[in-house]
Amino acid sequence: MRYLSTRATSTDTTERKRFCEILLEGLAPDGGLYLPEHYPQIDAATLTRWRGLSYADLAFEILSLYIDDIPPTDLKAICAKTYTEAVFGTQEIVPLRKLEDGLYLEALSNGPTLAFKDLAMQLLGNLFEYELARRGEELNILGATSGDTGSAAEYAMRGKKGVRVFMISPNGRMSPFQQAQMFSLQDENIHNIAIDGVFDDCQDIVKAVSNDLDFKRQYKIGTVNSINWARLMAQVVYYFSGYFQATKSNTEKVSFSVPSGNFGNVCAGHVARSMGLPIDKLVVATNENDVLDEFFRTGVYRVRSSADTHETSSPSMDISKASNFERFVFDLLGRDGAKTKALFYDQLASQGSFDLSADAAFKSAAQRYGFVSGKSTHADRLATIRDTWQRFGSMIDTHTADGVKVAREQIQAGVPMIVLETALPIKFAATIEEALGRSPDRPARFEGIEALPKRVRLLPADVAVIKRYIADHVQ
Ligand SMILES: *Cc1c(COP(=O)(O)O)cnc(C)c1O
Q: How far apart are the CA of 282 and the centre of ligand 1, in A?
């Protein structure tokens, strides 16, 4: 399998890369995102064989279709070490739970940081360690976080050889639980940096450091953001697992409802569907930051300004643009790299939006790709959390509530609807208290974490200071 950029305008296939070449890279050099040259097709016999596999073995089968530069025995060992009951809490890894006839939750949030990002990030940590050791190289991961991504990355990379993490967060702006999760890590290769500023300041610093190419090269700076193909590929696995748990035979179809921000999660659903998994609808559920809902309803993709980006009670979906969306548009446009580049590079830069409403590809998109969409407000999420608790005794978080609310608008008789549970309620306790008048349950391993010693360095929001801190800590 080779990989190409969504902005590739040359048909020269010698320029295409193998998996381990793109693993440690972020964007392609032309600014596009990497995608496989084609989506391997899964026939009925294969699907039947996979139905009985453990999660780790299923992951190995799917990853093998996309990775041909890691020996199979090594890849199998990496999958076995990643997807264990000890790390994810159950033997199923992503157990399905029924709310009512036709409506299910797939629990993706029982990993170390209680959000679905662990499912991909834990694999990424093991792949990074393996590939860096093979090359005899080191990597310093620099990131900005307002919560979920930073902690998932730290828990995936802690104690890994050859990797250090420098994670910048806005001082005092994460929930106490999220701060405790990150700052209580005592591993030497994990560096928490809190700055005086907001999340945008953190991101600006990461950008400024990454744009200094000499510094980046000298200090081997890398990232783990959601545009990394390996993360997306890892997420494909739980669509297959959810399908097998909800059905008895491969003639049945299911739909998925996906609480969405950067379009990484639901893009993995698009890949699974493109491989032939019998998915009927992919429901893109957004909060008040409805960039994606607007696109699927109207064909207009309009990036928001920061003034126009709302702070909501489902903060991991508060985005101004969807950084993985270019992948789907590339497929939608028949994999025309020149056209994709014209939209995402030229038009977005000059106008802040593009309009595909008149394009034949957009008009048939729902039918060909199964995408539909909807959104929720804070009041909708409160009502959904309350309803799900009162009628089914099931406590869901604010992001999952968005998925359930929009799922109900799209349910069709005879097609099971699986809502992806993307976080546990304990991470967003304040809203649960607002909805239910009680605090969420806390998994035993997180009892008292707020009282643990904290390992964090407070620094000014100054690029030069951050660079000096990194330089001083990479030896
Ligand atoms: C990251 C995140 C999302 C959004 O996922 P995308 O892949 O960015 O669309 C939704 N819910 C939770 C809890 C998250 O952490």
A: 15
